[in-house]
Design brief:
- 2 copies of one chain form a homodimer.
- The first copy, chain A, is α/β, with parallel strands linked by helices.
- The first copy, chain A, has 3 domains: about 300 residues, Zn peptidases (Aminopeptidase, 3-Layer(aba) Sandwich), CATH 3.40.630; about 190 residues, 3-Layer(bba) Sandwich (Glucose Oxidase, domain 1); about 140 residues, Up-down Bundle (Transcription Elongation Factor S-II, Chain A), CATH 1.20.930.40.
- Helix content of chain A is about 40%, strand content about 15%.
- Chain A is built from 21 helices and 19 strands.
- In chain A, the strands form 5 sheets. Chain A has a 7-stranded mixed sheet with strand order 1-12-14-13-15-17-16, sandwiched between helices. A 4-stranded antiparallel sheet of chain A has the order 3-2-11-5, with no helix packed on it.
- In chain A, helix 3 crosses helix 9, helix 10 crosses helix 14 and helix 17 runs antiparallel to helix 18.
- The longest helix of chain A has 27 residues.
- The N terminus of chain A is likely disordered.
- At the A-B interface, loops of A face loops of B.
Chain lengths: ~700, ~700
C-alpha cells in the first residue's frame, strides 16, 4: 500500500516538475526526472542504519587507531560501491588525546571534580573503555591554583562588562558557560584579559534540565554531560603550522616548510570543559557580587561574579601536541560527459567520541548514497559530470582535513568544482534545514520538491516550509568543512540535512541515543540521501550548470540594504554604498538577460560539447568574482567578499564580511574604499555575465 | 550646611510655583507655598522610625489581641497628635489564625513539609513565638490524599492550557506558583476544574534565588519564605456576608441581616501556601509529561505536568471562620472653613505578621503626619477643609475594614469626600510611584515638585521622572483600600508612595529587614510624609477643589482609542465607539472652558463662602457621573464605569471596565449598548461642566 502511494506522488511530481527544471530543456527534464525517480527507488533503506552502527562502534578521535579503523571501513565501503577511492594523508600539529588534566576545589574543602560522563545503565555504549575525559583541543599546558571569576558566555561583550564592573580576571581562573560564541574565543579573550586559566561548562539553562528532560530520559545534557571541542583560533582555517599550504606528510617530497608552533599564537593558558554537575561544586561556593540579571543560569542559587578568597581552584592541563597523521578519503564516480566538472559532497568522519549524530549520521548517509549511485552507474546511468564523495579527517580539531585538501587542489577546484555540498551531521533529527550560496538555493529547493517527507503526506519542500510559501534557506557561517571551499577557494557551497536534538560533543552522542531519540525508525537517513542524491544528479546531468544566476543580484541587494541600515546605526549621515548599488543594478539586468538566453538556448537545440564546456567554465567562474586577493582585514586567508564566519564569535555567518568588519569596528572612514572594492567585484561578475551573453 | 541648601531649594521652588498652583490665586499661592514649607520643616524625622518599630514589635493579624494592641497605640498616638479620633467596630466573617493544616508527601516516602519560615540567627524577630505558619485565609476546610498536577500560575489561560493538553485536575491536588493573578482566582479556577485541593508556592524564578540573593543575605525569598494571603473572591469587596451593608457588630441596633456563608460562593477545597524549599519535595518526585517551555521555574530539574501515580500528597486544612471583631480608626483634623469637605488619607494596619513594609510603613508615616499636621493646627494653621487620617483593619483578609466603612458612610462620602489617598505600605523602598484618578494627577505631580528626594540633589518629581519630561502615573487597580472609595462610591482616589524590595506576606517582613534592606537611614518615611502632607494641605486649602477638570477628557480619549484597538483585534469591521467619542469631544470643550473660567474667577477676587461651597459641591459631584446604577456585568457592587480591578485576575487595573469585559469575552453584540452607556455618562459629566460654567 505504501509503495503504491509513493509511486502516485512521484508521478504527480513528474508532471509538475518537467516544465521547470533549471538547466534542462523540457525534453531532457523528462528523462532526468525519471532517472531521479529510479535513483530514489534504488535506495536500500536499511544501509543507513547498518553503516551508522558500524561507524560508531568505538570512539574515534582524529589521529587514533580507532579512527584509522573507521577510515578503512569507509574506504572498503566506497570501493565496494564502485567508486574510485583515494586517500589523502597529512601531518597536522595537534593532539589526539586529552593528555593529563585535573580540576579540583582546594579550599575551603578539597573536592576533585569529575571530568568524564558517568556510565548509564540504559546506554551500553556509555561505559566503553576507550572513552576519554572531557577536553579542549589546543588548550595550553600549565597549572594554576587561583580564585575564580564567572564571565558568563565569555564573549567580547562579557569581558568588557566585567571590566566596566571593576572585576579583574588577572591571575584568576575564569569560569564561563558554553554558548554565545566559538569556545576558542572564550580562551582568546580570557587570556587577553590576563586570566591564568579557563574552565568552560554547559549551563542547565542553555542545554540542561531547564530546557527539558535530560539524557537518558530526554535529549538535554544531564549533570555529567561535557562538551568537548577545539579552541583553535588562528587567522586562517586548517593546520596551524601550514596556512595556504597542504600539510603533506614529512616524508612527502612536497612537504611544506612548517611554522614554529610558538609563532602561530596558540593559546597558552590551561583550558578544560566540565559538566554542570561539576561546575556546581564551584558555583555554589562563590561569595562575590551578584551577576547582572542576564548572566544568571539555571543552577539553584544566585550566581556571583567572584568566588572570593576562600575559594581556591586548582586547574591543570598537560596536553602535548605533535605532528599527527590524518587522512581524507575521496571516492569519485567519474562523469561520462564532463568528467572534469565536479560535484563534491563531503562530511568529516572523525568524532569526539562515537559521533552518532555528529558527524557520522552524515557519513552513513554518504556511504549509502555511494552505493545507490554506484548501482545506478553499473546499470548504465553514470552521471554526465563527476560526483566526488569526500570523508574529511580532523574536522573537530579545527576543520583541518578539508582545508588542507582545498589548499592542495585549490587551482584545480577553482577550475572544476561546480558545487560543494557539506553534510556534517546531516541526519541528526527530523527537521530539514539548509544554508547555501545564492546560486545553489533554487536547485536545492527544487530537489526537495521531489522527495517525500517520511511520517507525513508532505514533500520535504512542504515540510521544510512549515506552512510558509517557501522554506527559509540560511547563510553559510563557520564551523564546518565548507569553509575552505567557499571562503578560501570560491566554490559555491551549501550545507543541509535534518537536524534535531543533540548531545553535542559529549560521550553520549552514540547509537543508543540515535536509536532512542533522534530517529528510532531510521527514516531520515534515506530521506536525506534521496534529497542529496537528487540534487547531485540534477547538478551532474544538466546541460549547463544549473546555477540561479539572478539570485546573486537579488541577494546582494538585500544584504547591502541590511548593511546600510547597520551603518546608519553609528553613522546617521551615511550616504549609502552608491557604487555597489549601481553595480548591483547593472548585474541584475545582465543576470536576467543571461537567465533568459540560457533558457532559450536550452529549448532551441543542443550545443556542441565544446561550446557547452566553454559555457560551463564561464558559469563556474562567476563565484570567483567575489575572491579578493588581499583577503579580509581579520585574516588574509579568508578571500571571499561574499561570506565569512564572524571573526569575533566563530560560528555566526557574516555576509559581506568586508563591510561587516567595518560595522563591527564602527569605522566610518573605510566605508568608501570598501564600497569601491565591492563595486569592482560586482562589476567583474557583471562583465562575466555579459561575456556569457555574447557567447550565446 | 544641609539646611541652607534645603532653604535655597525651597525658595527656588517658591518662585517657580507661585505662578501656577491649581486652585489658588497668585496671592493665595504665595501664602500656601509658605505654609507648606513650614509644614515640611516641622516634620520630626525621627518619628517615622519610632512608630514603625513600635507598630511592628509583634505579629498582628486582624482579629487578634496583638492587633488590638496596635489599634490602641494608633488611637493613643493620633489622640496625642491632636486629632479627633473615632473607632469603628465591625463583625466580619473570617478567621484570625491558620487553624490546623498539614502538607505531606505520602508515597513514595513520607515527608512532612515545612509550613513556616525558619528562624534566622541574623534576624531576632524571626523566632517570635507568636509567628504563625503559612496560610491562605478563606481556604475551604477539608482533607485529601491525591496525585498532583502542576498548573503554572493557575490563571484562566493556564487551566485552559491543561485542558488542551488533555491533563485533568479532577480529584487531584493542584500545585501552582504565585504570580500572574490574585491567588483567590487560582483557588476559584482549580475548584471550577474539579481539583480536590490546591497548594500555592513561590517559585525561585519569580521571587527567589534566580532573581538575586535571598534573605537574610538579600531581598528575595529564601527557600523557607511563604507568601500568606486571602483567597476571598466574591462579586463584591468587603465582608463576604454583608454586601452593600456595613458589617456592624451584632449588638449594634443597625446590625444588618447577614447572608448565610453557604450562599456566598466561598471556596470549599483546602488551599495552603508553601515555600519553594517545601515544594521541592513534591516537584522533584513528579514523573509526568514535561511542561510547556514557559511553565518551567527555577528549581533544578525539568518541571512536569503530573506527579504520576507513585506520588501521593496529603493536604489538610481545618480553618474555622466566625464573626470576628475588627476596628477602623479615623482621626479628624477638622477644617476651619469647609469642615464638611474631606481629604481622606488611609492605610490598613493589620498584617500577616510584623508588617514592616506591608502595611505599617504607611501607618508609621501617617502617625508622623498626624503629629506634624496637629502641631501646625496648634500653631494656628488649621486647614480650611477637614483632613481625615484613617487606619483600616482586615485589609489583608479582603479589603474589608475600608469597604465596610465606605458602605456605612457612602452617602456622606459621596457628598463630602474630595479625595481618598491610599498609603498601603507607602514607604517600602526608594522608588516613588503613584496611580491616580485623572482629576488628581496634576496636583499630585505638582506636590512632588516641592519635596527634595533624599540622597540626591533632585526633587521627588525629578527622581520619579527618571530622566523623562514627566513622571508616569499609573491607573488604579485592585488589591487595597481605595477600592470601595473609588469603584463603589465614586470618590476620586490615588495611591502613592515609595516602593522597593519586598518579602511580601512572609514572616520576614520585619523591622530587621526594613533596617537592613529597605531604608537603613530612614529617610524615605519623612519624604513620603512631606509629599502627602503637601498634597493634603494643597487639597485642603485651595479656594476651589483643585481637580484637573480637563484631564478626564484627555484620558478618556486615550482609553477609548486603546479599547477600539483591542476590539479590532477580534472584530476588524468595528465602526468605533461613535457616541462616546462625540461625547468626549463635547466634554473636552466644556472642560477647557471650565478650567479657564475657574482660573479667571480665582484671580478676579473672592467668592462668598456660600458660592464657593456650591461650586465645590459641583466639583465633588463630577466623578459621580461615572457611577452606573446597574454596576458591572461581573458584579453589581462595582459601580464605576471608569475603573475597576480585573475580575479575571484581581490585581490588574481595568480602565473602562464595561468595555474591557466585552473585550475579554470577545462579545461584539453588546458593544453598541455599552457605547451608549458610556456616552450617557460622559454627557452627564459634560452637563455638570456646563452647569459649573453657568454658575461662574
Amino acid at each position: 500500500m505504501k509503495i503504491v502511494l509513493t509511486s502516485l506522488s512521484l508521478l504527480a511530481g513528474l508532471a509538475l516538475q518537467a516544465q521547470n527544471l533549471t538547466g534542462y530543456s523540457s525534453d531532457d527534464a523528462k528523462t532526468q526526472v525519471q532517472l531521479e525517480a529510479d535513483f530514489r527507488s534504488s535506495i536500500n533503506k536499511s544501509r543507513f542504519k547498518t553503516h551508522l552502527k558500524t561507524l560508531t562502534e568505538n570512539p574515534h578521535i582524529a589521529g587514533t587507531p580507532a579512527n584509522e579503523k573507521v577510515k578503512d571501513y569507509i574506504v572498503k565501503s566506497m570501493d565496494a560501491a564502485g567508486l574510485d577511492v583515494e586517500t589523502y594523508p597529512y601531518e597536522v600539529f595537534m593532539s589526539s588525546s586529552p593528555g593529563e588534566s585535573l580540576v579540583e576545589v582546594i579550599t575551603p574543602e578539597e573536592i576533585v571534580l569529575d571530568q568524564q560522563e558517568r556510565a548509564l545503565e540504559e546506554d551500553p555504549y556509555s561505559d566503553h573503555p576507550e572513552l576519554k575525559k572531557g577536553w579542549n583541543a589546543y588548550s595550553g599546558s600549565g597549572e594554576v591554583t587561583a580564585e575564580v571569576v564567572y564571565a558568563n558566555y565569555g564573549t567580547k561583550a562579557d569581558f568588557e562588562k566585567l571590566e566596566e564592573l571593576g572585576v579583574s580576571v588577572k591571575g584568576k581562573i575564569v569560569i564561563a558557560r558554553y554558548g554565545g560564541n566559538f569556545r576558542g574565543y572564550k580562551a582568546k579573550f580570557a587570556e587577553a584579559h590576563g586570566a591564568a586559566g579557563l574552565i568552560i561548562y554547559t549551563d542547565p539553562k542553555d542545554s540542561g534540565f531547564t530546557r527539558g528532560l535530560v539524557f537518558p530520559e530526554g535529549v538535554y545534557y544531564n549533570d555529567s554531560g561535557i562538551q568537548r571541542g577545539s579552541l583553535l583560533t588562528a587567522d586562517w582555517t586548517g593546520d596551524p603550522l601550514t596556512p595556504y599550504e597542504p600539510a603533506l606528510p614529512q616524508d612527502d617530497k612536497n612537504s611544506p616548510d612548517r611554522l614554529d608552533p610558538s609563532e602561530v599564537g596558540l593559546h597558552t593558558i590551561p583550558v578544560t570543559p566540565i559538566s554542570y554537575g561539576a561546575a556546581d561544586h564551584i558555583f555554589k561556593q562563590m561569595r562575590g557580587e551578584v551577576v547582572p540579571r542576564k548572566w544568571q543560569g539555571g543552577l539553584p542559587y544566585t550566581y556571583r561574579l567572584q568566588g572570593g578568597s576562600d575559594l581556591k581552584v586548582h586547574l591543570k592541563v598537560d596536553q602535548p601536541k605533535q605532528l599527527t597523521k590524518v587522512f581524507n578519503i575521496v571516492g569519485t564516480l567519474k562523469g561520462k560527459t564532463y568528467p572534469e566538472e565536479w560535484i563534491i559532497l563531503g562530511c568529516h568522519y572523525d568524532a569526539w567520541a562515537f559521533g552518532a549524530t555528529d558527524p557520522n549520521s552524515g557519513t552513513a548517509m554518504l556511504l549509502s548514497l555511494s552505493e545507490t549511485l554506484g548501482k545506478l552507474a553499473k546499470d548504465g546511468n553514470r552521471p554526465d559530470r563527476s560526483i566526488l564523495i569526500a570523508h574529511w579527517d580532523a574536522e573537530e580539531h579545527g576543520v583541518i582535513g578539508s582545508s588542507e585538501w582545498v589548499e592542495q587542489f585549490k587551482d584545480e577546484l577553482q577550475a572544476k568544482a561546480v558545487a560543494y555540498i557539506n553534510l556534517d551531521a546531516a541526519v541528526s533529527g527530523k527537521n530539514f534545514r539548509a544554508s547555501s550560496a545564492p546560486s545553489l538555493k533554487t536547485i536545492l529547493a527544487e530537489a526537495t520538491r521531489q522527495v517525500d517527507y517520511p511520517y507525513t503526506e508532505e514533500t520535504v519542500y512542504e515540510h521544510w516550509s512549515r506552512g510558509n510559501e517557501q522554506p527559509s534557506i540560511g547563510n553559510l557561517g563557520g564551523g564546518s568543512d565548507h569553509i575552505a571551499f567557499y571562503m578560501h577557494a570560491g566554490v559555491p557551497s551549501l550545507s543541509g540535512g535534518a537536524s534535531g536534538p543533540t548531545l553535542y560533543h559529549t560521550n553520549y552522542d552514540d547509537f543508543y541515543f540515535y536509536e532512542n531519540f533522534v530517529d528510532p525508525e531510521f527514516q531520515m537517513g534515506p530521506m536525506v540521501e534521496a534529497v542529496m542524491g537528487t540534487l547531485s544528479l540534477r547538478l551532474a546531468n544538466a546541460q549547463f550548470i544549473p546555477y540561479d544566476v539572478v539570485k546573486y543580484a537579488t541577494d546582494l541587494e538585500m544584504h547591502f540594504q541590511n548593511a546600510e541600515k547597520q551603518v546608519k546605526g553609528f553613522y546617521a549621515d551615511f550616504a549609502g554604498f552608491k557604487a555597489s548599488s549601481s553595480a548591483i543594478s547593472s548585474l541584475n539586468e545582465s543576470a536576467n538577460l543571461v537567465a533568459k538566453a540560457l533558457k532559450e538556448q536550452l529549448e532551441s537545440g543542443k550545443m556542441s560539447k565544446k561550446q557547452a564546456k566553454r559555457l560551463n567554465a564561464q558559469l563556474l567562474a562567476l563565484e570567483k568574482s567575489f575572491l579578493n586577493p588581499e583577503g579580509m582585514p581579520y585574516g588574509d586567508w579568508y578571500k571571499s567578499l561574499y561570506a565569512s564566519s564572524d571573526p569575533f564569535s566563530g560560528y555566526a555567518s557574516w555576509i559581506l564580511p568586508g563591510l561587516q568588519y567595518q560595522i563591527a569596528m564602527k569605522d566610518k572612514d573605510s566605508l568608501k574604499a570598501w564600497d569601491m572594492t565591492y563595486a569592482e567585484a560586482i562589476l567583474d561578475l557583471n562583465g562575466k555575465m555579459i561575456e556569457i551573453l555574447e557567447g550565446l
